[in-house]
Design a protein that fits this description.
With 122 residues, the protein is α+β, with helices and mostly antiparallel strands. It has three helices and five strands. The protein has one domain: 2-Layer Sandwich (YaeB-like fold), CATH 3.30.2310.20.
Length: 122
C-alpha cells in the first residue's frame, strides 16, 4: 500500500461537514499558514517517506506533521488511507514536550469515523 507514487492529501470532515484541520489552519497567523501549506505539499510529494524533522509516526498508524514557525510549534495529525490518500484530521499548537495522548486518541476517533463512513458507502 505505501509505495512510491502520487499522494493525495484530503481533509477529514465529520458527518456535519465540520473540518477540524481546516479550522485549525485558518486560526494560525498568515505566515504560519504559508509554512503549513508548504509542509502539506511536501507530505503530498513524499508520502510515508517524509521523516523527521518534518513528520513522525506517533502510534497505531497515526502520524504528525511537525511545523515550527517562530516560537510556534504546530502539529497536524494524519493517516494513510485507500492506497494513495493522506487524510489530515486536526491540528494543535504544541505547548508541552510530548504530544498529548488525548490528541492522539482524537485522531484515532476521527480515523475510525472516516473509515466507518467510507466502508458504509462502499
Amino acid at each position: 500500500m505505501l509505495g512510491y507514487g502520487k499522494w493525495e492529501v484530503v481533509y477529514y470532515e465529520d458527518r456535519r461537514g465540520r473540518c477540524p484541520v481546516e479550522d485549525f489552519i485558518e486560526s494560525l497567523p498568515e505566515k504560519a499558514q504559508v509554512k503549513v501549506f508548504a509542509y502539506i505539499e511536501l507530505l503530498e510529494e513524499k508520502g510515508p517517506f517524509l521523516k523527521r524533522p518534518y513528520a513522525d509516526l506517533l502510534e497505531d498508524e497515526i502520524y504528525e506533521l511537525r511545523v515550527r514557525f517562530g516560537k510556534g510549534r504546530y502539529r497536524i495529525f494524519y493517516f494513510f488511507w485507500s492506497g494513495n490518500k493522506i487524510v489530515l484530521t486536526h491540528g494543535i499548537t504544541k505547548k508541552t514536550s510530548s504530544v498529548p495522548p488525548t490528541e492522539i486518541e482524537r485522531a484515532k476517533r476521527y480515523r475510525e469515523d472516516w473509515l466507518r463512513r467510507f466502508e458504509e458507502a462502499a
